């Protein structure tokens, strides 16, 4: 995988670049729609391409491992062939999901024992097995198996957990180095910086992760309930250490504001369920600000959802019609809102890229955050 | 509204024609997708046009009256403007829905008192009011307010109910004759033949309905639980009386077999929730036969859903992927299956039309029914 930096912003740490994978290139900074079970909820694959202009999507290892399962994925020839998405895919390691199963998992040095949330069946994820699973899924970027500690979390636990993540990383790297991709395309392993909200742990972790010299690096364990300022501080601390010439991925973040601030701090890649999950609840991000489409004020507003954003969905359907669909819990409401919000997120990172290339990112960002986070 | 007959089949009563409305033409025989609350569930408007090739869709008066309500629909300029569907729309009269609310309605000469299934609020539908509502919705074809008796139903009740439907029809016709369309396009009223499964009542009703000399005529009260043979017999009896030069609409029917048999008996228009409702439950109609996509046998079948049908959805996605989506109750599963089944229904009536024009409809129909109703 090749990463080129085209431009850096003079007023911040923002950079515009290009990531080259065997499934095509990704212009950064980039937002990656989340396709948990091999589908971005409510969105057709052609809509991801044409309406949302997604360049890479995520798959969740935990969900794909349970359904459709490795046998089907292997027979299909990997996730790209299974779901028909021929651009890049990133898969997480399943760590975040199994740690969310609080009642039904047990962490050991070997790995994590857990019970499926679907049928209660017992499973063990070890770092090695998670690498093997991600070989079968076939993502272009695969994530190391880490422990994501909750927030708040005491220093002792965060430190212990970080060391476990580092030992697991060694096992992940070794497994990847001694196995081959199954479908002929390259898979890059991204290790994950942990350390909760403790700067010294974050420094230690970033140094360890950087020393692995992988194709790219990720920051995990943020946006788990801590104040945004804490998150930004951790990103700053970590990005001062992570190599500049490798892409940096901030996992599971966030609001449009979080993303623009993250870019200013030198992040290149983002993913979050917010645009799709909030869409299904009627919260729309628009080029004019945030709309709760369930509010009565939209019921007779027959103007398009967001003419400024362009695209079929945001210019064809009216706010009043979308409000009606949401009120009736019609599938089409979730579909429209999901496409709209994802298009907005891709537009957002595209605008950020333009302003990095133009050299005025920092000043644009402050204005954009103010406007885009306004509640209409 | 102008109806032309292009061809009649020598071996049956099937005819191929064209219905001209102010929102464009409809080639018959035609299937009309059901868009209950102003949306065909899970389907974008452009998908109705491009993937399904729908020529006319239905809206349900009962649902649209309750939500978004007449105030919003009037302000929007009618349903076409509200949901962005610029081809023809047919609205039912709400009769079928309010009679389904068994516990919460009361039938009188004046009309039907009922409680909303949403919030329990009390409403009265009279024939006049239902015409006014359909003026506000603005469908190109609007239906008379009728009583749809259940099956089975004793002769006395069926007779009484039929006479009530006839008296209500008179009031509908008078209301339509003394009011104007609200949005500048013509609205045609279709009266509805009732009479349950009693041939003499059906004859009486068909004669009365024919005597109204409206733009088209409908047959109601079928496909409510009676054997298919009873339904075909009633259609035969009624179609011998309904004028040949007017379109005939068989309401709420049915399976591919029902539709092909109905066409053979001289029906021109059909609607049914079956393709979309069954899609959401995993039942697919294909050019090779019927598939229950939830069956284990499809889990590793990576061939397209139905290459013979053509179109993005049916040729891009595999059976294995759709089975996976259905198993995970992913929105995209319902979306894919709904588009596929509706495309199939439009393909079905398109094939029927071709064979009517070719003059071999009757023999083609028998083979087609056999193949298309096979369970794969």
UniProtKB/TrEMBL annotation, chains A, B:
Pathways involved: tRNA modification; tRNA-queuosine biosynthesis
Residue ranges of domain tRNA-guanine(15) transglycosylase-like in the record: 14-371
Domain of life, per lineage: Bacteria
GO biological process: tRNA queuosine(34) biosynthetic process
Record's GO cellular component terms: cytosol
GO MF annotation terms: tRNA-guanosine(34) queuine transglycosylase activity
Positions of substrate binding: 92-96, 146, 194, 221
Gene3D superfamilies recorded: Queuine tRNA-ribosyltransferase-like
EC code: 2.4.2.29
Keyword field: Glycosyltransferase, Queuosine biosynthesis, Transferase, tRNA processing
UniProt cross-references to SUPFAM superfamilies, sorted A to Z: tRNA-guanine transglycosylase
Region span, RNA binding: 252-258, 276-280
Active site: 92, 271
Catalysed reaction equations from the record: 7-aminomethyl-7-carbaguanine + guanosine(34) in tRNA = 7-aminomethyl-7-carbaguanosine(34) in tRNA + guanine
Annotated PANTHER family: QUEUINE TRNA-RIBOSYLTRANSFERASE (PTHR46499:SF1)
Assembly behavior: Homodimer. Within each dimer, one monomer is responsible for RNA recognition and catalysis, while the other monomer binds to the replacement base PreQ1.
Stated family: Belongs to the queuine tRNA-ribosyltransferase family.
Function: Catalyzes the base-exchange of a guanine (G) residue with the queuine precursor 7-aminomethyl-7-deazaguanine (PreQ1) at position 34 (anticodon wobble position) in tRNAs with GU(N) anticodons (tRNA-Asp, -Asn, -His and -Tyr). Catalysis occurs through a double-displacement mechanism. The nucleophile active site attacks the C1' of nucleotide 34 to detach the guanine base from the RNA, forming a covalent enzyme-RNA intermediate. The proton acceptor active site deprotonates the incoming PreQ1, allowing a nucleophilic attack on the C1' of the ribose to form the product.
Name this protein carries in UniProt: Queuine tRNA-ribosyltransferase
Organism of this sequence: Leadbetterella byssophila (strain DSM 17132 / JCM 16389 / KACC 11308 / NBRC 106382 / 4M15)
């Amino acid at each position: 995988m090749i990463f080129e930096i085209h431009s850096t912003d003079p007023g911040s740490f923002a950079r515009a670049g290009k990531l080259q994978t065997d499934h095509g290139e990704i212009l950064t900074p980039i937002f990656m729609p989340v396709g948990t079970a091999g589908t971005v909820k409510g969105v057709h694959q052609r809509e991801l391409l044409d309406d949302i202009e997604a360049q890479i999507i995520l798959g969740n290892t935990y969900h794909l491992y349970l359904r459709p399962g490795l046998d089907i994925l292997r027979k299909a020839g990997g996730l790209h062939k299974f779901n028909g998405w021929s651009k890049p895919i990133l898969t997480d390691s399943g760590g975040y999901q199994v740690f969310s199963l609080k009642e039904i998992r047990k962490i050991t040095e070997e790995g994590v024992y857990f019970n499926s949330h679907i049928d209660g069946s017992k499973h063990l994820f070890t770092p090695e097995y998670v690498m093997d699973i991600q070989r079968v899924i076939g993502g272009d970027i695969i994530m190391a198996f880490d422990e994501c500690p909750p927030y708040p979390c005491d220093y002792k636990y965060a430190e212990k957990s970080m060391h476990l993540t580092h030992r697991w990383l060694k096992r992940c790297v070794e497994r990847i180095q001694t196995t081959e991709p199954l479908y002929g395309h390259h898979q890059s392993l991204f290790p994950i910086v942990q350390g909760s909200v403790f700067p010294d742990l974050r420094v230690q972790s970033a140094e360890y992760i950087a020393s692995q010299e992988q194709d790219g690096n990720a920051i995990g364990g943020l946006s788990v309930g801590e104040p945004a300022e804490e998150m930004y501080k951790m990103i700053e601390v970590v990005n001062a250490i992570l190599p500049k010439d490798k892409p940096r991925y901030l996992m599971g973040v966030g609001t449009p504001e979080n993303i623009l601030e993250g870019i200013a701090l030198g992040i290149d890649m983002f993913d979050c369920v917010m645009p799709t999950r909030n869409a299904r609840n009627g919260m729309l991000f628009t080029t004019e600000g945030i709309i709760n489409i369930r509010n009565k004020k939209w019921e007779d507003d027959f103007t398009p959802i967001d003419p400024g954003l362009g695209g079929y969905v945001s210019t064809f359907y009216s706010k009043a019609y979308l409000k009606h669909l949401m009120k009736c819990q019609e599938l089409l409401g979730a579909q429209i809102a999901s496409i709209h919000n994802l298009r907005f997120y891709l537009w957002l990172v595209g605008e950020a890229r333009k302003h990095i290339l133009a050299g005025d990112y920092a000043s644009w960002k402050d204005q954009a955050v103010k406007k885009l986070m306004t509640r209409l």
